[in-house]
Amino acid sequence: MFSLVWGTFATTLGWVVAADFRGAAHRFHAFSHAATPFVGSGAHVMGVGFFRLLAGLFALIGPIVLVTGLLELWRGEAENFRLPPVGGWFVLVQAVILGAALWSYWRRSGFLRRQWDAGSGPRRAAVAGVTASTVAFTLLLALGSGTWMLAAWLLGGLCGIALLLSDPADSATDA
Questions:
Q1: What's the pTM?
Q2: Stretch 134-153: mean pLDDT, rounded?
Q3: I want to staple 86 with a disulfide (CB 3.0 to 4.6 A). Which of 9, 51, 90, 161 is the partner?
Q4: What ranges in the chain are assigned the alpha helix state H?
């Protein structure tokens, strides 16, 4: 099941960013800088060309992994899987990290808040999908539900790709 989910996400993200469809590579570069906490307004460490090269690798490897996942599904080898039980401390640490990440992304200058404020229907749905899938991924990881956790990861990734393809939120994030 992991191969199917990862292959779908890698293929989609790889081709969209590598081809710079609707300026997605430039927005991915700006988004990654804006979404990284505690970075400030310093110079970018990696350029758009690096992201496009890396995305090209995903675009080439993703379909192979996707076909492998489809073959596993066809043969009946793809099955639900459960993660081992986790302790209470792990869940507590996970909740603190999730809270810090959501606070960072949703504060006034946060990445998701700017995307929400700049958009209407589809953009806001994508932002809500990213937020909900982040919470669902963390909750399902704590509960040990591996299959549904992967579904939440794929949903969040596809919503993130929809944000990449949307019009720029403002000139500062579309550098």
A1: 0.66
A2: 86
A3: 90
A4: 2-18, 24-35, 48-75, 88-106, 111-118, 121-143, 146-165
